[in-house]
User: Which sequence fits this backbone?
């Protein structure tokens, strides 16, 4: 979000999970899984074992953090799987010779994420930048809503998966993204954590639109694991499969909470749920694919 708002000149350190724009920045937080190509099943087992043992997969480069000597440190408590939490960050910060201001960012719903932009910019003394940033993004989401209303678009029954094996539903702000795109995900957990969801429950729900967007996976990486889904009993009976409305999407439009990428997620979901109304623009055209076209290419 700092990059989205053009405030990167104030940024001196990032985590291993930060987007490609920050690839050359010093990485203060590291993870033991960096550079590894584990499967969904393997990653789930590693994280589950780590949690059961009370261990963390992340660590702070104390020397690097000391050399940066930050004035502000932004932290998160949304997901202990995705990145280091505030408690671990506080422990590292306590060792510093100069104590920075800790600013926790823990949004639950979509509005919370919008407000995080103001929190970030305000901490840097640049609140007006956030207000302009949000106004421009609001125009894009308003345009989607206006077009849905103008076309009297029916509400689509959607499911978005945050993980493939085991299957996780979507939570936090993603159900609100789906709603903003003209859909509803009745298997989701709005403003709460995503949870393991049994396959028979998905079959009964029978989504009209199925979106596969595992956290941390881009389209190419997710395609490698689609066999875990298409081999399940009842896969070919799903309405989304019959009507060629199964999509694979980059995770950063959903579980990488910059408002800019989340708005791209809403625009993409609108194209997936209502292709008769919305067409992908240049910024999102490579961020999701219809699975039926992949099968044809094979």
Assistant:
């Amino acid at each position: 979000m700092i990059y989205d708002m053009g405030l990167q000149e104030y940024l001196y350190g990032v985590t291993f999970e930060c987007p490609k724009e920050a690839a050359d920045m010093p990485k203060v937080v590291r993870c033991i899984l960096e550079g590894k190509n584990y499967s969904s099943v393997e990653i789930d087992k590693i994280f589950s074992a780590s949690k059961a043992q009370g261990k963390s997969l992340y660590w702070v480069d104390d020397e690097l953090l000391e050399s940066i000597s930050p004035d502000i440190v932004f932290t998160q408590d949304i997901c202990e799987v995705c990145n280091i939490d505030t408690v671990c960050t506080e422990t590292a910060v306590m060792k510093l010779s100069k104590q920075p201001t800790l600013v926790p960012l823990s949004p639950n719903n979509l509005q919370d994420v919008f407000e995080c932009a103001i929190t970030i910019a305000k901490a840097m003394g640049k609140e007006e930048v956030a207000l302009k940033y949000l106004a421009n993004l609001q125009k894009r989401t308003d345009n989607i809503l206006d077009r849905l209303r103008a076309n009297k678009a029916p509400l689509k029954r959607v499911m978005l998966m945050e993980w493939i094996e085991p299957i996780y539903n979507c939570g936090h702000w993603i159900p609100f993204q789906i709603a903003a795109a003209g859909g509803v995900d009745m298997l989701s957990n709005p403003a709460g954590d995503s949870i393991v969801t049994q396959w028979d429950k998905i079959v009964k729900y029978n989504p009209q639109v199925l979106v596969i967007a595992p956290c941390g996976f881009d389209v190419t990486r997710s395609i490698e694991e689609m066999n875990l889904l298409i081999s399940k009993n009842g896969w070919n009976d799903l309405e989304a499969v019959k009507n060629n409305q199964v999509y694979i999407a980059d995770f950063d439009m959903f579980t990488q909470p910059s408002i800019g990428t989340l708005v791209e997620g809403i625009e993409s979901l609108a194209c997936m749920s209502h292709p008769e109304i919305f067409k992908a623009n240049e910024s999102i055209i490579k961020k999701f694919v219809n699975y039926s076209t992949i099968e044809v290419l094979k």
